[in-house]
C-alpha cells in the first residue's frame, strides 16, 4: 500500500495508527459542537487516503439483474435534486476499549470519540437509480465500491445495503458531495461518498466509484467479515475464520449514550455533566437520564441539541450535593421505547458496544 500521496490530516485528533491513518478526537471536545467541525471528525481508513479529481470523477452503475452498465459523471449527478441530511456517523468500534476491559478484543483501540454529527448534501440514491432506470425489486442489494486504493483485507473497499433501504419512503441514503456545506475533504471520501443514516460507518463508502445492483450482498471483506457481532464463544481468529459467513453484517448500531465531561465544583458540591447519545434506526432519542447511585435512581438530563431523525443528541445536567468522588452513569431511551442496557455482551471484534455511559469524578 502506498501512503506517499496522502493529504495533511487534522492535527486535533489522537492518532491510533498512521498507515492507514486512523484517529479520533476526545469526546470532551466533540460535545462542544452541535455540528461536528470537519477538523474534529474522526478518520477511519483501511487503506491509503487518495486525493481524487472532482472534475473527472464519475461512477459506474452495473445492473447485474438486467445486464446493463452505465456511467454517470459527478456534474450529471449534481444536476439531480439536492438533498441534505444531518446524521450521526459512527464507527462500529466506538467504545471498543471499554468492551476490551471485559475480555481482550481485536481491532483499533478506540475510545468514545469515533462518532461525528455532520450535515451532508448530495443526491438521494433513489433518485440516481430512478434517473438511470434501475427498477425497484424486493430482495436486491445495492453494492458500493471504491477502487481508489487497495485495503488491508481486500483489493478494494466495498459494502452494500438492501435495496429497500434506498427506496424506502423519505429515504435519506445519499451519494454526498458536501460535508458541512463544503466539498467533502479527501480524508472523508471526497469528491463523493455514501451516507447511510442509522447504519454503521463501515457502509458509508468513501471515494465511491461503483454501484452494483445485485442479488447478493457485497462480496468485499468488510461486508463479509470484520464488521459482525460474533457470539461470545467465538474468541480467537482461528475460531472466527470458518464461521464469519454464518453471521449477518452489522448494519444498524444500537442506541447508545456516553458521559463526555464531568466538571466538579468542589466548593458548592455541584457537578456539570455533558454527553452525547446516538440513535438506532428505530427513532431518535427521547430521554437521557443520569445516575450517581449505580442506577438505583435517575435524573433526566436536558436535551440541548437534536435535529431530525438521524442526528445525535447532546445533553447536559447539573447535579447538587454530590460527594467528593463518585461515578456518573448515563442511559438513553428512544422514540420506540428502547432503553439502553446496563451491560453489553462481549464480542471478539469489539463492535457495537453500548453499555450505560460511565465516568468517574
Ligand atoms: N473507501 C473507504 N470507505 C470507507 C472506509 C475505508 O477504509 N475506505 N472506512 C469505513 C469505516 S469503517 C468508517 S467508520 C467510515 C469512516 O468515515 P470517516 O473517516 O469520514 O469518519 O468510513 C467508511 N468508509
Ligand atoms: Mo468503522
List the helices and strands and how they pair.
Layout (H helix, E strand, L loop, with lengths): L13 E4 L4 E3 L2 H4 L27 E6 L4 E6 H5 L4 E8 L5 H7 L12 E10 H8 L8 E6 L10 E6 H5 L6 E6 L2 E2 L9 E3 L14 E5 L6 H4 L12 H4 L15 E10 L4 E9 L6 E7 L7 E2 L1 E4 L7 E7 L7 E8 L22 E4 L1
Parallel strand pairs: 3-12
Antiparallel strand pairs: 1-2, 3-4, 5-6, 6-9, 7-8, 7-12, 9-10, 9-11, 13-14, 14-18, 15-16, 15-19, 17-18, 19-20
Organism: Cylindrobasidium torrendii FP15055 ss-10
GO molecular function, one term: molybdopterin cofactor binding
Protein name: Molybdopterin binding oxidoreductase
Structure description:
The chain is mainly beta. The chain has two domains: 233 residues, Oxidoreductase, molybdopterin-binding domain (Sulfite Oxidase, Chain A, domain 2, Alpha-Beta Complex), CATH 3.90.420; 105 residues, Sandwich (Immunoglobulin-like). It is 10% helix and 32% strand. The chain has a five-stranded mixed sheet. Strands 5, 6, 9, 10 and 11 form a five-stranded antiparallel sheet that branches. A four-stranded antiparallel sheet has the order 13-14-18-17. Strand 3 and strand 4 form a beta hairpin. It is globular, with a radius of gyration of 21 Å. The mean pLDDT is 96. It binds ligand MTE and molybdenum atom (MO). The ligand Nc1nc2c(c(=O)[nH]1)N[C@H]1C(S)=C(S)[C@@H](COP(=O)(O)O)O[C@H]1N2 binds next to loops. One of its GO terms (biological process) is sulfur compound metabolic process. Its cofactor is Mo-molybdopterin. InterPro entries: Ig_E-set, MoCF_OxRdtse_dimer, Mopterin_OxRdtase_euk, OxRdtase_Mopterin-bd_dom, OxRdtase_Mopterin-bd_sf. GO terms for molecular function: heme binding; molybdenum ion binding; molybdopterin cofactor binding; sulfite oxidase activity. Keywords: Metal-binding, Molybdenum, Oxidoreductase.
Amino acid at each position: 500500500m502506498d501512503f506517499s500521496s496522502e493529504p495533511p490530516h487534522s492535527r486535533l485528533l489522537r492518532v491510533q495508527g498512521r498507515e492507514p491513518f486512523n484517529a479520533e478526537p476526545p469526546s470532551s471536545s466533540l460535545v462542544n459542537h452541535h455540528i461536528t467541525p470537519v477538523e474534529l471528525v474522526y478518520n477511519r481508513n483501511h487503506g491509503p487516503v487518495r486525493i481524487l479529481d472532482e472534475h473527472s470523477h464519475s461512477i459506474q452503475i452495473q445492473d447485474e439483474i438486467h445486464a446493463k452498465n452505465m456511467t454517470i459523471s459527478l456534474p450529471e449527478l449534481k444536476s439531480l435534486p439536492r438533498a441534505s441530511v444531518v446524521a450521526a456517523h459512527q464507527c462500529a468500534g466506538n467504545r471498543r476499549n471499554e468492551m476490551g476491559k471485559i475480555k481482550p478484543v481485536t481491532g483499533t483501540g478506540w475510545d468514545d470519540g469515533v462518532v461525528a454529527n455532520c450535515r451532508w448534501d448530495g443526491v438521494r440514491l433513489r433518485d440516481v437509480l430512478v434517473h438511470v432506470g434501475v427498477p425497484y425489486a424486493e430482495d436486491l442489494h445495492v453494492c458500493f465500491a471504491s477502487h481508489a486504493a487497495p485495503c488491508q483485507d481486500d483489493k478494494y473497499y466495498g459494502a452494500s445495503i438492501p435495496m429497500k433501504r434506498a427506496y424506502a419512503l423519505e429515504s435519506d441514503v445519499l451519494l454526498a458531495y458536501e460535508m458541512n456545506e463544503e466539498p467533502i475533504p479527501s480524508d472523508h471520501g471526497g469528491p463523493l461518498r455514501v451516507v447511510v443514516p442509522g447504519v454503521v460507518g463501515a457502509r458509508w463508502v468513501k471515494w465511491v466509484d461503483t454501484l452494483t445492483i445485485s442479488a447478493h450482498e457485497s462480496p468485499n471483506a468488510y461486508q463479509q467479515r470484520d464488521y459482525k457481532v460474533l457470539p461470545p464463544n467465538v474468541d480467537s481468529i482461528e475460531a472466527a475464520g470458518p464461521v464469519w459467513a454464518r453471521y449477518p453484517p452489522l448494519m444498524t448500531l444500537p442506541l447508545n449514550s456516553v458521559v463526555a465531561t464531568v466538571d466538579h465544583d468542589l466548593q458548592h458540591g455541584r457537578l456539570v455533566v455533558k454527553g452525547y447519545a446516538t440513535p438506532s434506526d428505530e427513532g431518535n432519542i427521547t430521554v437521557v437520564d443520569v445516575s450517581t447511585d449505580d442506577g438505583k435512581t435517575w435524573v433526566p438530563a436536558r436535551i440541548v441539541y437534536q435535529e431530525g431523525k438521524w442526528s445525535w443528541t447532546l445533553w447536559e445536567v447539573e447535579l447538587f450535593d454530590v460527594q467528593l468522588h463518585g461515578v456518573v452513569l448515563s442511559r438513553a431511551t428512544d422514540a420506540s421505547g428502547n432503553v439502553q442496557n446496563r451491560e453489553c455482551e462481549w464480542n471478539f471484534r469489539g463492535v457495537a458496544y453500548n453499555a450505560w455511559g460511565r465516568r468517574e469524578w
